[in-house]
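--- STAGE predict ---
source: upstream dedup step, 1 unique chain passed
mode: sequence only
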Amino acid sequence: MEELAQQAGITVRTLRFYRERKLIPPPRREGRIAWYDEDHLARLRTIAALLERGHTLNGIAELAEAFDHGRDVGELLGLGAPTEETPVRLSPEELADVFAGQATSENLAASLDLGYLATDGTDIVHISRRLLDTSAALVREGIPLADILAAARRVREHADALAELFTDVVLTEDRTPEDLQRLRPLAKSVVEAELSMALDRRLQKRP
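--- STAGE serialize ---
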């Protein structure tokens, strides 16, 4: 414990306090000996970085609980599943910076529930570079992350319905899943064009 505290730049008393608050996972035990590893050191450095960014210990504890109970990255990405999205690997402090202090436990829980985030050791993986960049841009425009995630849930429902519709149209008796993958760009073009025209109609209605 003394060695871990020294490496993290904290006192043993602080380390014990973090353990009591469940800010770090329990050590591996062999009899009376407690073994700490690089994951514990990484978590302590993350705590220090989040404290420097103005997070409270209560907030950090909630974040830690959300990540510790989040999905594993393998479960999130789905081994062998076809995708056009590029996952992004982030540290907790990098994620906090991306969303300008709005990476609260509530927003992280919503992101985990939507399947946007997963954990991989001490890292966080976002399922899609495009969605991450778009969400961050909307936050910079002054839109609360909570509102973005609420809208994302509704978008997910509509996107699932559109995917089901396209699949039903394409996968007739003489077509295969390979045809569906080949025709995928056509479905995206239809959705993009319809959304563009729908936005035009919305803008025309505004006074």
